[in-house]
Amino acid sequence: MTLWVIFGTATYRVITPAAVRPATAQRYFAPYNGIVQSVHVKAGDKVVQGQLLFAMNTQDIQLDLDYLNAQVRMSEIALDEAIQESDAVNAETERGRLSLYAAQRAIAHRQIERSQMHAAYDGLVTVGDPNLITGQMTALGDLVLEIVPTAQWIVELEVPEESIAELNTTLAGELSLNARPEVSQTFSVSRILPRSQQRNQKRIFIVEGTIESTDGWLRPGMEGTARVVIEEKPIWWIGSHRAIRALRRLLWI
Asked: What's the predicted TM-score (pTM) here?
């Protein structure tokens, strides 16, 4: 045993608290001022690309469109009559009206086209409550839903400042989450944030890793433990390096 401790080696790992978050998020906003007609998903639902998420009420827009269509037809008739009568002034006036009505009609068509929102990709709904949104008046830009992709996740490691120098973006590790500790998720270190933070009365650095594979059960905010593989080290060094560092800080050596 003594010889093993002195001459043996083992894989040295930096072990830290960790949490997962989505790599990105797609937010869906009200496309214009209006009433939300129906919401077809809620927070916690999984969606597939192209699935209908919510629809706006288009009744008022359709009435405006019917009115504009009628005005366009009337202006076209009036323009034809002015041209036949060689009335340049009225012809120019009707051309202006026709252009205005056509532009307003195009806006109404675009609003109707945007009245239904569909999922941009497969994902998980993280924000959205049909009971609070359906039938409510919304303003342009109001948040209706948020969806995160279920296949793209980031793990955030809280690395103590005494260990941050050992990490770089060529390393990889394993993540064990409290929700399913028997399952290990592999990840690759992708980014080291340059500024330290104060958490739980300790200085830590946030290190991000890209989770390479998932089974679709991850949820934002899940916590666990990450183990970053550094390199092979002597057994005696792994067991004593923290105490040696603490002694050096104390004695300034």
From this structure: 0.73
